[in-house]
Every structure is written in structure tokens, then in C-alpha cells.
Design the sequence.
């Protein structure tokens, strides 16, 4: 059993352990285990780690320590830490050093957290298995012949094997929740605009959110408290006005889109586990309500139109001129082709081409505009459902961790693994994945709870009850 | 839904990305499969009034520009070296590029 952040905090405070000894212990576990798993792309510089240890020790001495002070944390490699490598899992940024701190990093540094290492990921967060990383796949700590999920596979795996208690990832269509589910840890996707995106490499700007991984709902909540908040450097950051805490009177009703969950392609063990888990919640006094969301079935299509459109725009910045990999061509235009072709992997190129297509003249109305309208309809439907239920529950992933290579040659099959997580990003609401047991062969399974905008508190309350129900 | 090799060539030149001869057949199949799948949204008929309603809703949704006064917030040249250090090719305080006009 891993220690919780609060337990570690107590031990640091009363001197049973020191910040330095905790860091050494984490580094030791990483050195022992990461060779097999490959959750990490590298440790941060000694100077960064040791300067943060000094900051943390001083905070304890001055009585200013919080729950994250002195806690080692791993960061997904698409989040910028000034002066440190930040590759985004891509060859095009293999040697790129971040020129500034992301807002979440600034907050973690101020809280006295110890940034330990950079986590492996699918290239620019595009994928569901980390097989698209330019630096090799991350293996699942529960079975190294299987994937850890993705795109934040490294952030999930390092927590799962005990390298660090918490980590950060990013979630555009399920990239925190799905690997959390496949690795048996907790992962939180926050409300769109809740956590600042300043300093995270943009993929789908209307969908991306940063969020934490941890061993328990409580640990994830502790990290969330530190990283959320208005940021003037993020133009889509939610204003303080819209953050006013909601009155939390739970209706004790869980909504389940039954026909959406009981679908073709869902693994039988996943479905059985889901039904058992829901039954356990009934013991906690929850009422289950079948809900119908008309456009839910279309969310995946909406996603695979809007996301590539945003990808094709966002990734135009990698031009081989201002930073990153550069392969000179005969002309300046030719240099773009050479640099981008050499720097981007197949999935990234595929999504850029797709996005270029759906945005091109003649198709823009049929795809991009139509998808935006369906998105708005879906958002309305969710709002309506949340007047009746506290949370919506689905399995996080329709399948447990799959074999390395099983889906990598079939992009559409890989996309379908996002079916339960994608709608959440389309409508911008928060969601959490919590371990719900294991398959007969010992692979972790996860339960996804979805709440309304800025109702992370509801997820934490219900999530903690769910953890208790599962232990029983 | 027909997505042709010609379409792929056009996109590749628009997106400044080469697709090699070896990659082409699979890339073409993948694109056709994905576009075939997402084209299902064309089956959704949104009545004109609801479409119009959504357009208005989108406008009212609080989609607004976030701007600030155009004032210099940093000391001149304070970031120059950091940024130039990341540029692939540099001359003095400039990023060096291929000749544009010949």
C-alpha cells in the first residue's frame, strides 16, 4: 500500500523522513524499475532538483509547508519547465529546452514540490498507447507485453509502479483517464478553463486540459487544489467570477447511458465489472437512472473532426526556423517540407493532413462547422442531464490494456478506444477515472465519473465513496 | 465519399508535409477509413431553425476576445539570448533563414 500525500506530509513535518531521503528513495525505485517500463524520458537537472529541495526544506522550517511541499512529482513532457528539455515525445523537439515555466510548473515550484522527471507520451499527445512516442513505448507495469495507455502513459505508469506518488498529464480526448484506467491509478480531467494551459504544448486548444494522477482520489484532489485557478496568460482561463463554489447538495443519483455503454465492441469483463461496481454504489444509497443523450454516439466523429482541425493549425508553428529540428532544403519552402517530414511521426502527419482536409474550402461547412453545431447540441444535452443527476458513470475504457502492437497499425481501431472519454472533452466538463477492480488475468479496470462544469468537488465526494465501496 | 491520391497530394502540399511513395497506399486507406467514419455527422439533419438557434447560442455563449493594453511588459532584450539559443541557425541577434527572393 502506497503512502498518501497526507501521510508523507506528516512524516516530513515530524522529521521521520526528510525531503532529500524521499527524493533518493524515489530515484532508487525509478532506477530499479524504469528500465523495464520506460515511463520516463529523463530526470530533470540536478540543479533544479536540489534547488527545489532547498525551497521545500525552508518551507518546512518556516512552518509554510503545504501537502505538496517536498513531494516528488513527474511531469508529462509536453509541459514546459524553464531550461529543461521538453520534447513532447517528438523528434522535432528532441533537443528543445523550454524557455519559460508553464503556469502549473510555477505553481508547483511555489508549493515546494520536487520536479523529478519527464514522462513519456504519444507524440504531441496524439494516441492512446504511447506507441506514437518518438522515443519508444511505455509498458504496462501490470503486464509488460501490454500498453500503459496514452497519451499520458508515462505519467500513469510511473505512479503505478511506485516511482512517485503523483504526476501531471494532459487530456484532450481521454489522455489522462484512459492510461489511469489501464494502469490501475486515479486520473482527473479538469473542467475546461479550470487549470491554466499556459506552457503546455497546444494540441486541440478547445479540448486540452492538464490534470493529475495519483494513488487515490484524495491525492489527486490535493494536487488539483494547487494547480487550478484563473490565469491571465491563458485566454480561455475561467474567471474568478465563474469559479464561485457551488452549493453541494448531492441528489444521490447516478446517470448511466445504458444503451451507449452496452455497445458492440465492449469487453465482457469490462461490462461485468462496471455492473458490479454500480451495484456497490447502490449500497451507498445511490439511485441509478438510465439516461439518454441523443448525440453521444456522434461525439467520436465530432472529436475526430475538431481535434485534427485544431492540430493542423497548432502544429504549423513547427517550421524548423525558430526552434526545433531543422533540415535545410533547397528553398525556404522546401525547408518546411524537409523539417516537418523528418520531425513528425506518422500519426501526427496523418492528423495534420486530416485537419487540413476538414478545414479546406468546400469541406469546411460539411465537417468543421457541422461538428461545431453538434458539439453545441451535445453541450446542451449534458446541461439538461446534470439537472437530474449528480454524475454520469461509464467504464473509462471499453477494453483493458491491449497488447503492444495490437492496434498500432489501425488508427480507427485505436480511436474507438476513446469512445467513453471523448464526449467529456467535447462538452468541457470534468471527469475522473478510478480503479474498479481487475480482469481474471489481473489487468486493472477503471470507472469513469463525469460531473457538470466546475463540479470537481462532486467527483471527489463520490469518488471517495466509490473507493470505499470497492475495498468492501 | 471518395478520397483520392490526388487529394492526398494536394493536402500534403498545403500542410507542408511529404508523404513518401512507400507510405502512400496505407496513408490513403487510413484517411479513407477515418473520413468514412466521421462523415456520419452528415447524416444528422439539424433543422434550419435549430441550426440558426445554435448559431445565436454560440455567439451568446460568452465567446469573446481576451485582450490587454499593448504595452511592453518586459525589459528589452531580456529574452533574446534564451530564444536565440533554441533557433537552428543564428547570425548576430537574428534568426537566419534561406534566401526568400532570388
Sequence:
Amino acid at each position: 500500500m502506497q503512502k498518501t500525500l497526507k501521510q508523507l506530509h506528516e512524516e516530513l513535518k515530524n522529521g521521520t523522513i526528510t525531503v532529500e531521503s524521499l527524493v533518493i528513495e524515489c530515484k532508487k525505485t525509478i532506477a530499479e524499475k524504469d528500465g523495464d517500463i520506460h515511463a520516463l524520458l529523463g530526470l530533470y537537472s540536478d540543479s533544479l532538483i536540489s534547488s527545489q529541495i532547498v525551497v521545500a526544506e525552508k518551507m518546512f522550517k518556516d512552518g509554510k509547508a503545504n501537502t505538496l511541499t517536498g513531494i516528488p512529482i513527474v511531469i508529462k513532457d509536453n509541459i514546459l519547465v524553464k531550461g529543461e528539455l521538453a520534447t513532447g515525445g517528438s523528434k522535432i523537439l528532441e533537443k528543445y529546452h523550454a524557455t519559460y515555466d508553464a503556469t502549473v510548473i510555477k505553481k508547483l515550484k511555489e508549493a515546494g514540490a520536487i520536479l523529478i522527471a519527464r514522462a513519456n507520451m504519444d507524440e504531441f499527445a496524439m494516441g492512446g498507447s504511447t506507441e506514437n512516442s518518438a522515443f519508444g513505448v511505455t509498458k504496462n507495469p501490470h503486464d509488460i507485453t501490454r500498453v500503459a495507455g496514452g497519451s499520458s502513459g508515462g505519467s500513469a505508469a510511473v505512479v503505478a509502479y511506485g516511482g512517485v506518488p503523483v504526476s501531471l498529464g494532459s487530456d484532450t480526448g481521454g489522455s489522462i483517464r484512459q492510461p489511469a484506467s489501464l494502469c490501475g491509478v486515479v486520473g482527473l480531467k479538469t473542467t475546461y478553463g479550470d487549470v491554466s494551459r499556459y506552457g503546455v504544448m497546444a494540441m486541440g486548444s478547445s479540448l486540452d486540459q492538464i490534470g493529475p494522477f495519483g494513488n487515490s482520489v484524495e491525492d489527486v484532489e490535493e494536487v488539483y487544489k494547487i494547480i487550478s485557478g484563473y490565469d491571465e496568460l491563458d485566454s480561455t482561463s475561467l474567471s474568478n467570477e465563474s469559479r464561485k463554489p457551488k452549493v453541494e447538495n448531492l441528489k444521490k443519483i447516478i446517470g448511466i447511458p445504458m444503451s451507449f455503454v452496452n455497445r458492440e465492441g465492449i469487453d465482457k469483463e469490462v461490462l461485468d465489472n462496471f455492473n458490479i461496481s454500480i451495484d456497490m454504489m447502490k449500497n451507498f444509497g445511490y439511485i441509478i437512472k438510465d439516461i439518454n443523450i441523443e448525440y453521444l454516439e456522434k461525439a467520436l466523429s465530432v472529436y475526430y473532426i475538431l481535434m485534427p482541425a485544431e492540430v493542423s493549425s497548432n502544429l504549423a508553428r513547427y517550421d524548423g526556423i525558430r526552434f526545433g529540428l531543422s533540415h535545410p532544403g533547397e528553398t525556404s519552402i522546401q525547408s518546411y517540407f524537409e523539417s516537418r517530414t523528418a520531425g513528425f511521426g506518422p500519426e501526427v502527419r496523418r492528423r495534420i493532413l486530416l485537419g487540413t482536409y476538414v478545414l479546406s474550402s468546400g469541406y469546411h461547412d460539411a465537417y468543421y462547422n457541422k461538428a461545431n453545431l453538434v458539439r453545441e447540441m451535445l453541450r446542451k444535452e449534458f446541461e439538461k442531464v446534470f439537472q437530474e443527476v449528480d454524475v454520469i458513470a461509464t467504464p473509462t475504457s471499453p477494453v483493458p490494456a491491449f497488447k503492444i502492437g495490437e492496434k498500432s497499425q489501425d488508427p480507427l481501431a485505436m480511436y474507438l478506444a476513446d469512445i467513453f472519454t471523448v464526449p467529456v472533452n467535447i462538452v468541457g466538463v470534468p471527469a475522473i477515472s478510478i480503479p474498479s477492480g481487475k480482469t481474471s488475468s489481473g489487468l486493472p479496470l477503471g470507472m469513469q465519473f463525469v460531473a457538470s462544469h466546475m463540479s470537481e468537488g462532486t467527483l471527489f465526494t463520490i469518488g471517495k465513496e466509490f473507493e470505499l465501496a470497492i475495498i468492501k | 465519399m471518395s478520397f483520392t491520391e490526388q487529394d492526398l497530394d494536394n493536402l500534403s502540399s498545403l500542410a507542408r508535409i511529404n508523404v513518401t511513395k512507400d507510405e502512400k497506399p496505407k496513408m490513403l486507406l487510413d484517411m479513407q477509413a477515418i473520413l468514412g467514419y466521421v462523415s456520419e455527422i452528415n447524416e444528422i439533419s439539424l433543422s434550419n431553425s435549430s441550426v440558426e438557434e445554435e448559431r445565436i447560442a454560440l455567439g451568446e455563449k460568452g465567446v469573446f476576445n481576451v485582450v490587454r493594453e499593448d504595452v511592453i511588459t518586459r525589459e528589452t532584450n531580456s529574452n533574446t539570448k534564451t530564444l536565440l539559443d533554441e533557433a537552428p541557425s543564428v547570425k548576430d541577434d537574428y534568426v537566419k533563414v534561406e534566401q526568400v527572393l532570388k
Notes: Residues 230 and 237 of chain A are 6 Å apart (CA to CA).
